[in-house]
Amino acid sequence: MVFPIKWSTPPMARCQHLRRLLSSAAARVAAPVPAWRFPQSTGTSAQSARIRELGRVGRLSEAREVFDAMPFHDIIAWNSMISAYCSNGMPDAARSLADSISGGNLRTGTILVSGYGRAGRVRDARMVFDGMPVRNTVAWNAMVTCYVQNGDIALARRLFDAMPSRDVSSWNTMLTGYCHSRQMVDARNLFEKMPERNTVSWTVMISGYVLSEQHGKAWDMFRMMHYEGISPEQPNLVSVLSAISNLGNLNILESIHVLIHKAGFERDVVVGTAMLNVYTRGVSMLDTAVKFFEGMTVRNEYTWSTMIAALSQGGRIDDAVTVYQRDPLKSVPSRTAMLTGLAQCGRINDARILFDQIPGPNTVSWNAMITGYMQNEMVDEAEELFNRMPFRNTISWAGMIAGYAQNGRSEEALVLLQALHRNGMLPSLSSLTSSFFACSNIEALETGKQVHSLAVKAGCQFNSYVCNALITMYAKCRNIGFVRQIFDRMTVKDTVSYNSFITALVQNDMLEEASDTFDNMPSRDVVSWTTIISAYAQADQGNQAVEIFRSMLQERELPNSPILTILLGVGGNLGACKLGQQIHTVAVKLGMDSGLIVANALISMYFKCGSADSLKVFDSMEERDIFTWNTIITGYAQHGLGREAIRIYQQMECAGALPNEVTFVGLLHACSHSGLVDEGREFFKSMSCDYGLTPLLEHYACMVDLLGRAGDVQGAEQFIYDMPIEPDAVIWSALLGACKIHKNVEIGRRAAAKLFSIEPSNAGNYVMLSNIYSSQGMWDEVAKVRKLMKEQGVNKDPGCSWIQIKNRMHSFVTGDEEHEQIHDIHATLRELYTLLKAAGYVPDTEFVLHDIDAEQKECSLMYHSEKLAVAYGLLVTPKGLPIQIMKNLRICGDCHTFIKFVSHVTKREIDIRDGNRFHHFRNGNCSCGDFW
């Protein structure tokens, strides 16, 4: 959907109003009044301070009223108002005000440079900087800071090198740029060259190492500072405490605690709060954090809010409430932390009650309440609160735009962006990135281009956050040309940029280029590894995904839960139980095996590999969600264990878990593969009558399959005609499959005709119809189907089976001649045929789709892929060892009979997972009871 957004220029009414309020003497002068004409008076200091305070909390309209009411303005008043506009994301309004006094003074220009820099508008900042008649070191520092803030470290360094003179702030600004961009080698080189250092220099370096997750080096830098005789100060203590929190070394924490005591910071509330932050970093240390908090002799509002927030985030909301009730001040930060915690745990009504009790809530409190509503999907309530706000800042607008986009109301997010711009404000970086996300959600390419133009107008089109969001948006809209263009033009490419670009390539089916980009990344994080491993897994290149995972471990990058889940899926799809067990071991070592997502993936993997360990994982789980129950019900269905699936469902009901549509698909599938017709009918009825769930196509397909497999082919066909929705290919395919089982030519012909019109390129439909004809000896009809396939350009998918021996996967196709031991395999098969025929096995030649003599038919059947895999398993594994085989297509009736006889004659347990389900062969019988 394209929105006719027309971006207007900021209104000039305020500038005109300002000029009317100038003194009469100034008003008579045609040119703007120079800044030096304004008197310097201490009488305006109170009003200037008031303007600055109102600007700090985002109350711009009130600040302007104070400014306009002043009988005269000195340069401090002008700069206070200009600074208020800049700090609230309105640099254009600030620029208009500055132009009214002929640009102001040196301080005015510096404020504008900083304002444009914070807004991401580097080009405008540089224009102001270049237009300044006089520039001091502070102005140069502001321009360097602008480049640093917006990620252009190369231009920052170029300007830094061109500075006529530098102070320690200049060096620290450049040092900050390197540290923020995680270029710690360059930062360290610059640090070593500094002619003078202060505690800020040391703090920046420590913070840089923390940001780049080199926490050991951050601690080493702090120790070096200490050895050089520099006494620690509050900022670097706070920074090094952040590093220590990530080292997880309690000995270091105790030593820094002693140092803090010796340095006289024991009663420093800021340092104490930083220590508290270390203790609250992990849920496992919350009790220690509480003990430290209770021992603090001095606490401020941030100490209380930190403890409340930590307990809330750690899931201990009741303890957080207790701490809040003990807070003697109950300051706005404390109340805001409490309402945020209540909202995060779903107690949104309690959060609102607390919000309403805040006397004079500030913008942060309003924003926190709006965010709480958005987190709880209460968009209308957030909107009502937003409309009632007495004043808003850029975070308010950004929070609403993000909330709309994240709650599926992307159109409203874009309308709000338009309203923001019409109010004379340019959007913040957060608002822009959320707007690009909204465009991605609805694939609104044209609107995305308009927002892109607005980003250019705002001068932040080269900002890394904006560029990353643009890459994602254009990738979702399938415009890979724009994706390349943005990525290639980025002046600074961080890891997030590379990750976004790789994701874009993967989404556009460009896996090879994505892999090359991954290989050439200057640095990688766990998201990089997740993206490329997921890409190979989704492309059915599981082996390559596993190899990349091994490389990841070799580079000592620890996997996250999504990576383990992806690889467990790979192991399940390949039927590689040993691989799955290895990933399980990794999960146990990392303490991730008990996590809900990983545990669910483990259950699914073990079921797909035919392992009973799935039940062990299920039984050991302390927490289960709907995905857990659905996974185990579906797993039992895949193994044809209908009664067990029903038992689990009953257990699920007793646990109070509500089933969803997926639950009933699993149940109906289980009933279908176990011949439980009456039970299946009851479940189909129950989903709508008992749970208010509307049956979907998947449920109707299961019912058709259930009736058809049980022999009621006519009833299955009538069921389709009685459906309230249009049947799809899956439903007709289920009917055709039933006709194949029960050799119903007429209904099979009608079902096939429907399928040929819906999906003319699906070879399986033609093969099933051919099977029906060949089973009745209707060779002319078989020939017609074969001719139709040729005319449609349809090729039958070859049957493929594979078996894992040790750490190697061996695959076979029907009639395979390529395997290195194929002659031994053929010899084993011939021996088996002799033994099995003596035991009563008779090849079922109706599964041969060619009108050839009986001997040729038998020969054709002998070399089906699953028989080759079974023979190889018998050939290379010790006697008595179970054999497990995977197959891409449904096992044919003759192979099913053949393997039953093999399990009886050889006394082997043989498990086969075909395209539909598992077959467990034991002593001449199959778990499916010949019902599949």
TrEMBL record:
- Transmembrane residues, as ranges? none
All residue ranges annotated as the DYW domain in the record: 840-932
Task: Tell me the InterPro entries matching this sequence.
Answer: DYW_dom (IPR032867), E_motif (IPR046848), PPR_At4g14850-like_plant (IPR046960), PPR_rpt (IPR002885), TPR-like_helical_dom_sf (IPR011990)
Gene3D superfamilies for this protein? Tetratricopeptide repeat domain
Query: Which keywords does this Swiss-Prot/TrEMBL entry list?
Result: Repeat, Transit peptide
> Where does the source fall among the domains of life?
Eukaryota
Protein's UniProt keywords contain Transferase: no
Q: Does the keyword Lyase apply?
A: no
Spans of repeat PPR: 74-108, 136-166, 167-201, 300-334, 362-396, 494-524, 525-559, 625-659, 660-695
| NCBIfam families, alphabetized | PPR
Kindly give the PANTHER family that the UniProt entry links to this protein: DYW DOMAIN-CONTAINING PROTEIN, PENTATRICOPEPTIDE REPEAT-CONTAINING PROTEIN
Name the record gives this protein? DYW domain-containing protein
UniProt source species = Urochloa decumbens
